## 1
Amino acid sequence: PNMNKTYIEERLVKLCSMWIYYHELSHIVQGHRQVAKELHSENCEEMNIFYEAPNIAETNAIDRYLFEFSADREACIRIIPFLKSTDKDEIIYKRDIWIFIVGMHQTFEMFNENYNIELREIKGSHPHPAIRLKLIVKYIIESIKVFARDLWAESEEEINELVNSAIYMAESCRKSPYNG
């Protein structure tokens, strides 16, 4: 299909809606209420990369962040079949990854209260959207390589160009006075 405005809008809504659905379902399937009782936040790679070691008062927020990272990762795995434009497609097109990244950026912009906090500040129920987007891009590319290797043949350089283009577009839309 052509990458016209209608195609982009329909794909963006479908991919982001499916991702949100799988993200929320992941919270239930992963049993985050039970996990909260047994979780040791300091052992998580994502938390060690982006946040300082927690103190006791921040533990609950950090656990919530970990739940979000975990649900994000599972949603990225489950969205893979939907990245193909049609059921008949044998590959995942770069344009659909681009649309997904732009859409997720816009989704975080719309739903997340944490854009106005410092990047590494632990505040609110969800991690900073920029950190989540960075990890989602990482998760989606990893998931494609593991679960759909035969559908994706892009080099690391092409992937980086694609991601940078999508984020630039999403940021441009966010800053535009005409983004309504």
## 2
Amino acid sequence: PTTDAPGPQVIAAMRDYSLVELRRSGSGTFHVNQALTVPAGRQLDVQGDVVVDEGVTLRVDGTMDIAGNLTNHGTTIVTSGDTLIVGGQTYSDGSLEITATGHFRMSGKGIRSLGSMTVAGRIDGAGSVVIEKGSFSMTDGEIRSSNGKAALKVEEGKNVSFARGSIVTMSPAGAAGQW
């Protein structure tokens, strides 16, 4: 539930199992300002943008569906095959990790990473993963894009490593190009 009062608002949708309060600014942005874990078997839907503050960890063991953008200044770890779904752009200058059982679904514009990114699980959807700066590592992972654009673009990666895995770009008609 949220309040309709102007200014900072609090959503306590998960308070029943003592996990988090997401603080909402007047702009419809929810700030994760303390450690948040979405437990296995649970789902958190956020109708707006989410910002993970610096020094804070967001861990998705269940399902988290963000209708807007995700901005990660802290650490975001996706361990669940149940998925982290982002409807808008994901921007990360922190640490983004998709573990072997993790699934990150891009429903929007994709992921722009300037921090560190580790992929051992699956990233898929309509966007592209763009590594602008920072580090990128993939072991036994998969990145799959369905919009006909490059699934992975490395613009200025300082430390880029691949050890097993696949990168697949699907055209809108369904034809695949795989590396």
## 3
Amino acid sequence: FNTIAIDFSNSKPLSLKKYINNFVNIDYSIVLPFFKKLSKLFNIFNYNNISILNFNINDFIYINQKIYFIAFHKLQNIKNNFIFLDNIIEYSTFNSPDITLIKSIPTNIHYKSFYFSFAILLFNFYNQNDIDFHNLNKLENSDYQNKVQNILLFFQGTPFYYFIKRILPYEPINRSLVFI
């Protein structure tokens, strides 16, 4: 990977969490391009057999009206559509159900597993009282699907509806990272 330098001289970087906490209403002029670019970035990684098990809100910063991914150390190689997991991952709401429900280690995790993290990241841009996504990653298939349907109702008519629908199937193999 090429190293990219970011000029901080004209503004103070904020954690993405702090930036989101300042939201009164979602700013589509920042959030839409961010999710489009992030989707494109991870599709390029996937095309080059690189993926990530998960990411969370601490893996991003906000500077000069832009959001940057800063956790390149989390990237891993994909082999036969899977990432090898040989150590315990700390629990996070950003972990997909297949990671949360791991019974033993070592194991293989499908490279599309982390697409779940995109949805949780997006949900963080909205009022936590509007979307009940907590414990989504602890649910079994039918309960999970029901909760996802309720979440989709909230996003109906927004630019994110189909994006969420594509990244939240229960089985990672059925997820796709397409943002139009």
